[in-house]
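Good morning,

Attaching, inline, the backbone tokens for the sequence recovery test we're adding to the shared suite. The designed sequence is right after.
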């Protein structure tokens, strides 16, 4: 047996072991992600008939979906929620991470405090904030009254309620983004800052020309994950606003509309069409983000 045959067999054996090790992940991906995706697309072509029957209707659910003004309102609300939460949340996380990266007392305590909302159940977080936003007894409006400002009816005013939900979202997720950005800050070589000090670079120039480019991969990752999570926002808005609330229409996101149609009205086919529309939106935004990565992200 020549050396070429031996190397070829060894190469095949290594590939076999590699596929064997990643097989659990592949199986999980197929069962939990790929199969449900195709099943949802198929289900969106059907309509409930009777109590348990389903009737094939082709693209009827999609015609109804794009002809429904509530769908476009929910889509707009979803985008507004992303605009409210992602830029502000990442900006605050970056500022706090930069502060915690310096030599300050009780640094570990502050990190734990900021990360604590991540481990709290979203239902509990929303109920506490719902009390804070209470227009009559909530501490937020009471504090505004002390400043001579009349606080709004946070949970029942169209346009304001979505902002209230965004505040909850920012507060709940800022700890995760902060930890990720802080890890990126701590990975920057100290020699870069030493060289900048020698050249007489001021603090702002260090931040914009050294810190930001060095942590741009982390910022990109945080932006992608935060955008996807904001697009899929459900629990906070669902618990904050019910269908009888006058602010419901101006606050409902696509995921809330999907839940109502699929699990409260039992229109699984129409709900699947909403989920498919949500998938298309997430996919397009993610593709745009990865196109922008080539110009905005700097890998060293």
């Amino acid at each position: 047996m020549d050396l070429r045959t031996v190397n070829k067999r060894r190469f095949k054996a290594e590939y076999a072991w590699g596929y064997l090790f990643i097989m659990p992940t592949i199986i999980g991906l197929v069962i939990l992600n790929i199969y449900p995706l195709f099943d949802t697309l198929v289900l969106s072509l059907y309509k409930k008939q009777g109590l348990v029957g389903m009737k094939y209707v082709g693209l009827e659910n999609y015609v109804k979906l794009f002809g429904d003004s509530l769908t476009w309102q929910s889509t707009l609300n979803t985008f507004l929620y992303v605009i409210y939460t992602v830029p502000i949340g990442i900006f605050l996380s970056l500022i706090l991470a930069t502060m915690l990266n310096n030599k300050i007392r009780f640094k570990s305590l502050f990190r734990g405090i900021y990360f604590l909302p991540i481990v709290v159940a979203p239902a509990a977080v929303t109920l506490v904030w719902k009390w804070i936003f209470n227009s009559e007894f909530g501490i937020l409006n009471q504090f505004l009254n002390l400043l001579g400002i009349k606080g709004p009816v946070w949970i029942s005013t169209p346009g304001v309620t979505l902002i209230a939900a965004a505040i909850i979202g920012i507060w709940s997720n800022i700890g995760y983004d902060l930890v990720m950005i802080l890890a990126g800050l701590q990975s920057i070589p100290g020699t870069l800052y030493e060289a900048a000090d020698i050249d007489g670079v001021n603090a702002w120039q260090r931040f914009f020309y050294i810190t930001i480019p060095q942590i741009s991969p982390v910022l990109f990752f945080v932006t992608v994950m935060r955008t996807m999570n904001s697009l899929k926002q459900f629990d906070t808005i669902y618990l904050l606003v019910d269908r009888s609330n006058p602010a419901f229409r101006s606050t409902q996101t696509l995921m809330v509309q999907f839940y109502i149609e699929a699990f409260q009205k039992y229109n699984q086919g129409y709900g699947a069409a909403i989920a498919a529309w949500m998938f298309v939106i997430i996919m397009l935004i993610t593709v745009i983000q990865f196109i922008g990565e080539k110009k905005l992200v700097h890998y060293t």
